Task: structure prediction
Amino acid sequence: MNKAQTRPMRSLVIGLAAAGALLAAVTGQIGAHAQAIAAHNSNAPVNTAADRIELQDRQNRVLLSGNVDITQADLQLQAARTLVNYSNNGSLQIQRITATGGVRVTRGNEVASGDVAVYDFNKRIITMAGNVKLQRGTDTLSGGRLVIDLQSGLSSVDGSAAAPGVMAQSGGRVTGTFTVPKN
Result:
């Protein structure tokens, strides 16, 4: 092969190597996120604060509204309103927290935000829907729905919203921005 024939091949090899390095960096960033989430203690006590708390004892639920702040270990959930469902078998056990209105879930330098979130304590899964954004440092993913499995540490984002009437701004696609380490 002459020089003119090897140039496109060399460009292809360099391009594939660069794409591989980018994929490795992105996989490393997401893998580090998954390990951090998996370390969450979902059995830790839950603390709540809000402008108004209403106990609906017959329905086994508590309605919190106005600047709601819920923490469990190093996980913090903030929203305009939450509904906490519980069971009462001698002691109160939270089953589910449903949050609406500017929902923000924070843990360390990781922030997830969206229109609606459901924290299922039995499954140890947090599902967020509507204008979802997952941010870790300067890396971001945006989409319609985010599912965080606290047990396995797996987080996934898809482009469609999971709740009726909640539309994703991303047009049904997942978008992301990742920083690439400098050599």
